[in-house]
Amino acid sequence: MDKSVTKMFALIEALAGSEQPRGVTELARELALTKTNVHRLLRTLEANGFARRVGELGRYELTLKLWELSSQVVARLDVKKESAGFLARLSEMTQETVHLSVRDGFDVVYIDKIESAEPVRAFTKVGSRAPLYCVGTGKAMLAFLPPEQIASLEGRLERYTDTTITDFGALQEELAQVRSQGFAVYRAEWRDGVNSIAAPIRDHSGSVIAAVGIAGPATRLQPNAFPRLAPLVVDTAAAISRRLGYRPTGDATGSNIDQPGGLSIEDHSQHRSAQGHA
After folding, report:
1. CATH (one of 3.30.420.40, 1.10.150.20, 3.40.50.10380, 1.10.10.10) for 3-63
2. Which of 31, 46, 154, 210 reaches 20 to 30 Å from 62, CA-CA?
3. H or E element: which one contains 35?
4. What whole-number distance in Å separates Cα of residue 127 and Cα of residue 112?
């Protein structure tokens, strides 16, 4: 193991365990390191936003960046646990494969799925990845990233199929539509012959932390079915968001799906007859 990395972790633990900012000399004494070594490590933490200097004495304390990173991991665990029943209900009502995804950089990572019972269905593996801009759940999350992060994709849109969006202007227009209508659609942009519909999931702060989507063969999950199925996906995402503590401004009652088995759809049967990656 790299000794510098080990020293860095020891320093982070020392700072995390301190109620007050710490000085270079006392940290060097506690960790049995030279002051030069400790100072270099502290400057590295400071340069990367993990620590800051406090007061005129040059003492250091950790920022909240580690907490922010760890909270993302906790959120992933929470969203998977809280989503399970809702995913099962969405699968039952659409008869398509259901995916739960989170973002890792500019990739989608599938953290849960329910396979369609249909003999021909979209195929994915939990833990697999896909580019954010190419799949439904990815676009549902990408649309709500800060503009500067979206802009960093310009010139980096690789083509995977004939329908992959590779023009940045066209991608921006599609993401604006996602924000406007509340869901994303995917038309065989990552893998041929697979379509999907997806919607964003928000945490208690309103941040988009995940997305849920349905996926199926393009021959069955056709664009003319999107208007009928999209509300089911959007309502499922809203219900999961509520379970995670999200309350839209002015929402006194919340989504019409408050329990995993409580999807309120006027005509269940028409969705059961409606029939990749999400």
Report:
1. 1.10.10.10
2. 210
3. helix 35-47
4. 8
> Residue 151 and residue 165: Cα distance in Å, rounded?
15
Say how many residues make up the chain. Answer: 278
Helix axes 35-47, 3-16, angle to 10 degrees: 80
Does the pLDDT value for residue 266 go beyond 60? no
Query: Residues 135-188: pLDDT tens digits?
Result: 999 999 999 999 999 999 999 999 999 999 999 999 999 999 999 999 999 888
> Which residue reads 């193991």 in tokens?
1
CATH superfamily of 69-272: GAF domain (3.30.450.40)
Output the six-digit token pair for 47: 């340069």
Name which of 132, 137, 194 is nearest 161 in CA terms: 194
In whole angstroms, give the CA distance from residue 41 to residue 11.
8
Q: In the structure encoding, which two tokens stand for residue 81, read together?
A: 């646990």
pTM: 0.67
pLDDT at 61: 94
Q: Contact 198/233 with Cβ under 8 angstroms?
A: yes
